[in-house]
Amino acid sequence: MSNCIPISIRGYKKLEEELARLKEERPAIIQAIKEAREEGDLRENAGYDAARERQGMAEARIKYIESRLALYQVFDLDKLSGDKVSFGATVEVEDVDSGEVKRFTILGPDEADPARGSISFLSPVGQALLGRAAGDEVTVTIPRGRVIYEIISVTFEGTK
Prior knowledge:
This protein is of the alpha/beta class. The chain has a five-stranded mixed beta sheet with strand order 5-4-3-7-6. It has helices at 9-37, 46-69, 124-129, and strands at 5-8, 72-75, 90-95, 101-107, 118-120, 137-142, 145-155. The protein is 37% helix and 26% strand. It is elongated. Strand 6 (137-142) and strand 7 form a beta hairpin.
């Protein structure tokens, strides 16, 4: 069980869809390589190089997703609850020094998207928040330095 990686239903489905799309693209990539080969000298063929690079990236991503799918433990975020920060929690924090308020949803590493307000439970902020409750203060070292957050609230809202 220690090798399990938590992921939401939505995150799991998104990765399954990406995997299906990548597999559907394989024939087009192979065709692009074939057409580029027919153009002649491969040493100076930018189309061939681009198609091979695209193929390498797609195959690497396919392998990565396939290897991860077996490791996931899928959670329905709508069924999670509690008063302490854990996977699936939405946490509102206040920077003690600046007063800036932020909201994070704690997710797995393969579905975290800081630009959209979700962070990995493996990130420094995620690690500092895990197991904490409203009213707790946590100190985190982030790229801009050390920051102290006070946890304002911990909710479990699912992906609504």
